[in-house]
Write a structure and sequence with these properties.
By secondary structure, the chain is α+β, with helices and mostly antiparallel strands. The protein is 32% helix and 14% strand. Helix 1 crosses helix 4 and helix 2 packs across helix 4. The structure holds flavin mononucleotide (FMN).
């Protein structure tokens, strides 16, 4: 699958078949996160792969999307660019998961109020941030793409306000 196909196929999957995910695939997905750009190439990101069923069950208390074989946590420190670096890694992870035929979802909003509790569960040091959790698994259904704003509505050519007339795409 090329990168454009992965971008088009990716969607937030929140319901999964309850099958395990081979560690080999999880390492490929994490490696895509490792290779993402980072400010000044500082690469302060770390990743945690979660395959333990009891831990995944506990993560369901954050949001019930972890009835699946695996999850990946993206950990950063509190330095400059941490949010950008973590975001770049998350997007690479989502695309790599899609390319390997897995569903995934960027879980951050529901994690924020429970971050300290989940860090404790996963033994993540207090000074680090658990930026996002990403469930990985085979989707239960092939969901529709979430509505996206049309390209011509959000694209300007040379000067803001110069709109392009483009064929509409999904
Ligand atoms: C910063 C950020 C935080 C998000 N947090 C959550 C979350 O906590 N729970 C969730 O179900 N989805 C979360 N999402 C996924 C969005 O809801 C999803 O990307 C959006 O609805 C568009 O759907 P799509 O990913 O299928 O294109 C988050 C996405 C981003 C970029």
């Amino acid at each position: 699958m090329d990168v454009f196909e992965a971008i088009r196929k990716r969607r937030s999957v929140r319901l999964f078949q309850n099958t395990s995910v081979p560690l080999e695939d999880l390492l490929k997905i994490v490696d895509a996160g490792r290779l993402a750009p980072s400010g000044s190439n500082l690469q302060r990101r770390e990743f945690i792969i979660i395959t333990d069923r009891a831990t995944l069950f506990r993560l369901n208390e954050v949001q019930p999307v972890f009835d699946t074989g695996a999850a990946i946590g993206v950990i950063v420190d509190q330095t400059r660019w941490a949010v950008e670096d973590a975001s770049a890694a998350v997007e690479n992870i989502l695309l790599a998961a899609t390319a390997l035929g897995y569903g995934s979802c960027w879980i951050e909003g529901t994690l924020i109020p429970r971050e300290e509790e989940v860090k404790e569960l996963l033994n993540i040091p207090k000074e680090k941030r658990l930026f996002a959790l990403i469930p990985i698994g085979i989707p239960l259904t092939s969901g529709e793409q979430a509505p996206k704003r049309p390209l011509e509505e959000i694209t300007h050519l040379n000067r803001y306000g110069n709109k392009l007339s483009l064929p509409s795409e999904g």
